[in-house]
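Its record is quoted verbatim for completeness.
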Amino acid sequence: MNGAPQPTMGLEVRGLSIDVGGRCLVRDLEFRIESGSVTCVLGRNGTGKTLTLRTLAGLRPFARGEITIAGRALGAFDRRELARRRALLTQSTEDPFPSTVLEAVLVGRHPHLGAWQWEGVRDQAVAREYLEEVELANFEHRDLATLSGGERRRVAIAAVLAQAPDVFLLDEPTNHLDPHHQLAVMALFRARADTGHAVLMSLHEPGLAARYADTALLLFGNGDWSFGPAAEILTESNLSRLYAMPVRELRWESGRTFVPR
């Protein structure tokens, strides 16, 4: 290793079970995400991807098991510290009050502020920096209500980046995005992982997972799951079982993808 720093543990799950409506979606889940890595979660609708992410974020109770961040149990963090450790990007974002784009991104800075403290010049600079990263540099004064679905999604991503957590939990981050911005967002979070963050994201596109992920988690919806290196987990047979349809792998010089057969 030539003295290179060893990866540290970002998030670990031991014996986690997730039940809903009397049905066990995920049973005895065990995996760990190292800082510096990207993990993609794949599965059909209703197999527990969103519930798993919300559970890992500490936003819902779980039947049994343990979740730790940097070796510390999730329940040991107070709310503000937990918000500095992990950020959750939800599938959709509601805007109950009028707001500008910059104000929406500044919400991500709240875990870093003291009680009754307002955002300062530094916080605004951070928000503008991430708006530029998601290609919305000139949008800061726009009303959120005037944005397209894809633009609003990128604002939400900028807010998560502004939160500056150790662990990113992203529920379908490419939702509403065109192909250009899908690849840009995937590359953005790949770059975050490469600088030492842990990234866990749910996706509907196994080709993106094959291109950007180090590890993959497959959720089958009946309690079964599979986790491991993306190169080993993302196979025709596994994905055919996952999606309950024949899937074919296509390879080319720089990568691979999967299509229905």
Observations:
- The CA atoms of residues 58 and 247 lie 34 Å apart.
- The mean pLDDT is 92.
